[in-house]
Amino acid sequence: MPIARDFFDTFNQLNISKNRWVLIGYILNYLRDFHNIPCMDFITYNEDIEVLHSEVEEKLNALLKNNESIFANTDNMLIYNTYIQLIFVFASVINEIQNGPPSLSHLELARCLASEDVILTFNWDTLMDRALSQTTNWDTDNGYLIKPAKVYKDKWIEATDCNAIDYPIIIKLHGSTNWLTSYLRPDGDKLKSIQETSTDNFYIYESTVMPYSTYEGRFMNGYSEYSYGYYPPNLPLVGEVISKGHVLLKTTITTKDMPQGTASSKGLVSMPLIIPPVKHKNYSHFGNLFSQLWNKAEESLVAADRIIIIGYSFPATDTQTDKLFRKALCQRTNMPDIVIIDPLPENISDRFTHDYGINESNVTIHKTHFNQDFDVEALLKS
User: Fold this and answer.
1) Less crowded by CB within 10 Å, the N or C end of the chain?
2) Which has the minimum average pLDDT: 18-32, 242-256, 270-284?
3) Which residues of 52-84 are buried (b: 16+ CB within 10 A; e: fewer)?
4) Residues 314-354: pLDDT tens digits?
């Protein structure tokens, strides 16, 4: 997966950057109007996506806080639509990279985990999801701790209940590319999904055989399980009821040479349910969904005998994660063992020993990359 400062370079190397259905027009216009970057220069643009997305979100939050309509002027509309397009492009790049054969390193890790293990991830990809589904009884219906409203497996089906879960749970603290919600629209001082059901409800995309219904029928084939083209399937919902005195506007972005979609467009248009890589992450857009996940993550860290950190660098900007670990470790009556797998582990180790009060003797460091050659089985047995 690309790191934040390589994101746009990665995007421009992928075939989706040339696909007319992959919409970047608002992003180009934003860079032109707010950064004086000509649209044609986007091919070499490589700003850190966290910096750009954070900037756009701050402008959007200022509009919401001041109760300004996104339709008040072209700048407001540009800011809102750039924010949405960045989410789609971000998820699309991840979908392209995770498309194909399963990750061997994730498969090896999945094979060695026990049912009582818990996976906390701040990533949006589905590499671990897919690995667990191929090596254990893990499924999307119950494997994310919180049950989705429905799961797409060549059609929308009800998620089933499981009384005895015999596989590890994945807690995705920033959402996932295969988690779907309806479009977000301004509602007072926050964004709110336009579905008529609760904002806590989310939907899961797993796989398809036939083309699914999507925005303007723009279904793209050639994707493996848990991955999809730029447009996810529409939700089996209708939009929320429009209040008296208001009208619903629908826009379709197209050009003369835009290919026509051939699939159905039935249902409510969806978007990836992710907390984007921004400095100030707002989890409240989705009701209590993320508070439940973060509370369970805290419980898991309090109870764990051993905490293994794989490739997470504890960036200073991720204050929510810092609070999570501080709060959880302060509640413990004993000291857990900490295992760090990272080619640059020093700052992570310092965080645990200096900030979280873990004894150095309880910290084990593997100064290496986590890949298919790493001996996971020996690690977990030790």
Assistant:
1) C
2) 242-256
3) bbbbbbebbbebbeeeeebeeeeebebbbbbbb
4) 887 788 999 999 999 999 999 999 999 999 999 999 999 99
Q: Strands of 245-305 (E only): list them.
A: 270-274
- Cα–Cα distance measured from residue 235 to residue 252, given in angstroms and rounded to the nearest whole number: 18
Q: Examine residue 318 and state whether it is found in any structural domain, yes or no.
A: yes
Which pLDDT score, from 0 to 100, does residue 8 have? 95
**pLDDT, mean over the chain:** 92
CB atoms within 10 A of CB 205: 27
What is the structure's pLDDT at 188? 78
- DSSP alpha helices (H): ranges in the chain? 7-13, 25-35, 49-65, 74-98, 104-112, 127-135, 289-303, 319-330, 346-350, 376-381
Q: Is residue 310 included in any domain, yes or no?
A: yes
Strand partners, 268: 235
Identify whether 136 is part of a domain: no
- Whether 217 maps to a domain, the answer reads no
Q: Is 92 helix (H, G, I), strand (E, B) or coil?
A: helix
Structurally, how many domains does the chain consist of? 1
